[in-house]
From TrEMBL:
Residue ranges of coiled coil: none
Species, as recorded: Murimonas intestini
The name this protein goes by in its record: DNA polymerase I
Lineage, broadest ranks: Bacteria, Bacillati, Bacillota, Clostridia, Lachnospirales
Pfam family, one: 5_3_exonuc_N
SUPFAM superfamilies reported in the protein's UniProt record: 5' to 3' exonuclease, C-terminal subdomain, DNA/RNA polymerases, PIN domain-like, Ribonuclease H-like
Gene behind this protein: polA
GO BP annotations listed: DNA-templated DNA replication; double-strand break repair
DNA sequence: TAGGTCACG
DNA sequence: ACGTACGTGACCTAG
């Protein structure tokens, strides 16, 4: 909508100008809003926050004029006056610095004048323009996060200080009266207060021994530094008196530095600042590029008419549908999307040209069977088809020629695995530079309703995006050298994961129930004992309440750790468990309630009528290329503790089948040996099966047979640490040793395996240069944290850069194995099925008579999945349940 | 909805 | 000096 500058109804009401302190508000926004980046990796949170604050103010002010002031780099008149007045300010973080030109570009696009003048600070420009505007009879609002601006407050000039709170942005307003109320001095006197007390961040020296309180008291009484000096002998705290006597010159200099120059020679014409339509084409484009979706709503409807929606057509009779499918058969590119709602096909969306976009709801003669039948034909005949979330659609269609169909969500995931969604609107934004309404926005209320216009629009966008993105995503994959990874691993894996989900795993519901009941009894006992020892009833599951009981009431040692109070995490409690019986009880309680709620009760609700659990295996979640499992997560079923491990007994094969479970032995360390090419480690793997022991032997220079259990344990921890992106602190925590000792271990380790150190260093260095790391199979992980100015973030980036190629390569390898194992069992006519993957482990439900055959397949395909410098060893077990097969 | 905790590799 | 091991998902509490 065009925002007209509204003429005020009453003639005696004055016009208003809003003046914004650019850097100050940008700063506020930067620190107040979590980091955001757009698809190009540009940080955008400060610009976004600035615009939100600006719009909020404009919405409530109804002003007629607007301008934004920025500092320039050049030295100001203050530098000339006072040498120390120079760049001791904190440097701006790079993430914020990047955003300054973007902010200026945005304001320019909105035709908002920028006030900048070499040799003057934004404060001076704001003060000058405010004074001039006031002289012309305008009301003035100055928006800044900086309290120094309070000296500009008058009856007509209001200083507005936004505060970002949890509940949103709140703004504190100060006219002259409010300044006096809050600070006990007038705005003009505020300068003198600041001059006396000084301001380190602004390089105002002030005078020694005078802080805010004394300064305020003196100025409140005498009105100015000069007048106070005139009454020097009356001044109260002796220290302040003598300081003022001695440093009067400094005080006066401070005052000049602190005073905003309201007569700076800034070129400013009120007419240029008149608020016109902020919502220009240029601003729209920039908002789009920055991905400010919420702000786009402020622009005229959904922006420049996107011609796409003009070509959406809803088809309701089979005659018309037949024609469409005929054309689709010959399409170069077919975009399709099955519309699935509550596990039922509600319709189909297809697109095979810029103007051929169709929504075909299931209705009458146009049955689900008709639609899927015709779609299968089309997908088998069109040169290529694109869709989003193919695995979900496979429940309803068979793909005749897998090579012709691509899942664009998976392509987009490979291109950038750090996003959390790959919906059609994400893809449109990323690959078509198009902002389209999301499914959530369109179908928010009411869900799927074939009659609604929004449903048809959603279908249209889905089909169009699937069509239009097919080429761009594949081109991008080729540019990034991931096309082979896509076609040879990720796309085939879609079908493998679908098969696994469909197969599911059988669960003995009665036994699961019994397991839960057993826990309940013990939980009750523990609860009573804990309450008895605490002397009161409380919710043991509440870390907050528990913290208070343990560390305040019972006064156990172990101070604060978390933001919201005491840490009661297991590693903290472990240290107290020996000495305080209540702590052991709590630890046991925690363990048992976890088993009960997450596993016993948690799993039970997922058992379907066929007695099986069908988890979802997600292919576009992790940053490293692993798959994830949800609803329920079957990749974190207990195994480390015996009691928890028991739960695996409820996972059983169908009658006549057994489980065959195979897991890679130290796959990540083997991957590291390979990609680093470290001779010593490779040889170690060639000669011994106990790698941690041989590591200890090599690192500590002791004969293999004399390695103590402790030495082996330490070596094992270092091996793990290396894979995680080692740090002496992390290792010291893990082994409960000092940082120094940990650092020594690491040094020795690197001396023993120099190529590993070289590899890790080079990987980090290269990641800093390129912005990403890759696996052996070309999978990328961007590491934006490496360019952060924040030490902690950057260190995190370094560890990620070291870990991702290792974890990711292992993920690639097991994916290859899964595809081949699954295919072989199907092609060789077996009844056995792959049913689970747990990162380095595959679980097969094998027909009893096929067990040996299955073992052979698992061994061949898992070991043969990659040809590394070291052998890929596996451990394999069979059993009548998952407990036994492990 | 976020934070704390804990299950897995 | 900063304050951590890497990658996940589910449940619970509390605002």
């Amino acid at each position: 909508m065009t925002r007209k500058s509204e003429e005020t109804a009453a003639g005696n009401m004055s016009e208003k100008i809003v003046l914004i302190d650019g850097h100050s508000i940008l700063n506020r926004a930067f620190y107040g809003i979590p980091d955001l980046t757009n698809g190009e990796g540009l940080h955008t949170n400060a610009v976004y926050g600035f615009l939100n604050i600006m719009f909020k103010i404009l919405d409530e002010e109804k002003a007629q004029y607007l301008a934004v002031a920025f500092d320039l780099k050049a030295p100001t008149f203050r530098h000339k006056m006072f040498e120390a007045y120079k760049g001791t300010r904190k440097p701006m973080p790079e993430e914020l610095h990047q955003q300054v030109p973007v902010m200026k570009e945005m304001l320019t696009a909105m035709k908002v004048p920028l006030l900048m003048k070499e040799g003057y600070e934004a404060d001076d420009l704001l003060g000058t323009v405010a004074k001039r505007a006031e002289a012309e009879g305008l009301d003035v609002s100055i928006v800044s996060g900086d309290r120094d601006l309070l000296q500009l407050a008058t009856d007509k000039t209001k200083i507005r200080i936004p505060k970002t709170k949890r509940t949103g942005t709140e703004i504190e307003d100060y006219n002259a009266v409010e300044v006096k109320e809050k600070y006990l001095v007038t705005p003009k006197e505020f300068i003198d207060v600041k001059a006396l007390m000084g301001d380190a961040s602004d390089n105002i020296p002030g005078i020694p021994g005078v802080g805010e309180k004394t300064a305020t008291k003196i100025i409140a009484e005498y009105g100015s530094i000069e007048n106070a000096y005139g009454h020097l002998e009356e001044i109260k705290p002796n220290k302040a008196r003598e300081s003022l006597r001695e440093h009067y010159d400094m005080a006066q200099l401070s005052k000049t530095l602190a005073a905003i120059d309201t007569d700076s020679p800034v070129e400013f014409s009120l007419e240029e600042a008149r608020l016109g339509d902020l919502y220009t084409e240029e601003a729209f484009e920039l908002c789009k590029r920055l991905e400010f979706k919420n702000l786009l709503a402020r622009f005229n409807c959904d922006g420049p008419k996107n011609s796409v929606s003009g070509h959406f057509k809803k088809i309701t009779d089979t005659a018309a549908a037949d024609e469409i499918f005929e054309s689709a058969l010959n399409a170069d590119i077919l975009g399709f999307q099955l519309l699935i709602w509550q596990k039922q096909i509600q319709g189909l969306a297809v697109c095979y040209g810029e103007e051929d976009i169709y929504y075909l709801p299931v209705q009458g003669a146009m049955t689900a069977e008709y639609l899927t039948g015709r779609l299968e034909q089309a997908a088998g005949s069109a040169k290529m088809s694109g869709t989003i979330n193919l695995k979900e659609e496979l429940s309803f269609i068979r793909i005749p020629d897998r090579k012709r169909v691509v899942d664009e969500a998976i392509a987009a995931y490979l291109i950038n695995p750090l996003k959390d969604t790959y919906t059609y609107d994400d893809l449109a934004k990323e690959y078509l530079q198009m902002i389209v309404p999301s499914r959530m926005e369109l179908l928010a209320k009411g869900g799927y309703d074939p009659e609604r216009e929004e449903t048809a629009a959603c279908a249209g966008y889905m089909a169009y995006v699937a069509f239009a993105c097919a080429i761009p995503v594949q081109d991008r994959l080729k540019e990034l050298d991931m096309f082979k990874l896509f076609t040879d691993i990720e796309m085939p894996l879609v079908y493998t994961l679908y098969d696994m989900e469909k197969a599911g795993i059988m669960v003995n519901a009665e036994e699961l129930k019994a397991y839960g009941d057993k826990l309940t009894g013990r939980i009750g006992e523990l609860e009573e004992s804990i309450w008895a020892q605490a002397g009161e009833k409380f919710n043991i599951n509440s870390p907050k309440q528990l913290g208070v009981i343990l560390f305040e009431k019972l006064k156990l040692p172990g101070g604060k750790k978390t933001k919201s109070g005491f840490s009661t995490a297991a590693d903290v409690l472990d240290k107290l468990a020996d000495e305080y019986p209540i702590v052991s009880l709590i630890l046991e309680y925690r363990q048992l309630t976890k088993l009960k709620s997450t596993y016993a009760d948690g799993l039970a609700v997922y058992i379907t009528e066929n007695g099986r659990i069908h988890s979802s295996f997600n292919q576009t979640i992790t940053a490293t290329g692993r798959i994830s499992s949800t609803e329920p997560n079957l990749q974190n079923i207990p195994v480390r503790m015996e009691l928890g491990r028991e739960i695996r007994k409820v996972f059983i094969p169908s009658p006549g089948f057994i489980f065959v479970d195979a897991d890679y032995s130290q796959i990540e360390l083997r991957v590291l040996a390979h990609i680093s090419g470290d001779k010593t480690l490779i040889d170690a793997y060639r000669q011994a099966q106990d790698i941690h022991r041989i590591t200890a032997s090599q690192v500590f220079h002791i004969p293999f047979d004399e390695v103590t259990p402790l030495q082996r344990r330490n070596a094992k921890a270092v091996n793990f640490g290396i894979v995680y992106g080692i740090s002496s602190f992390g290792l010291s925590q893990d082994l409960s040793i000092t940082k120094k000792e940990a650092a020594e271990y690491i040094n020795k380790y690197f001396e023993t395996y120099p190529r590993i150190k070289q590899f890790l260093d080079e990987t980090v260095e290269n990641a800093k240069k390129e912005g990403y790391v890759t696996t052996l199979f070309g999978r990328r992980r961007p590491v934006p944290e490496l360019s952060s100015s924040n030490f902690m973030q950057r260190s995190f980036g370094e560890r990620v850069a070291m870990n991702a190629p290792i974890q990711g390569t292992a993920a690639d390898i097991i994916k290859i194995a899964m595809i081949r194992v699954n295919e072989r069992m199907k092609n060789e006519g077996l009844l056995s099925r792959l049913i689970l993957q747990v990162h380095d482990e595959l679980l097969v439900e094998a027909a009893a008579e096929e067990a040996e055959h299955v073992k052979e397949i698992l061994r061949e395909e898992m070991q043969g999945a990659a040809d590394l410098a070291v052998r890929l060893e596996i451990d394999m077990h069979t059993g009548a349940n998952w407990y036994e097969a492990k």
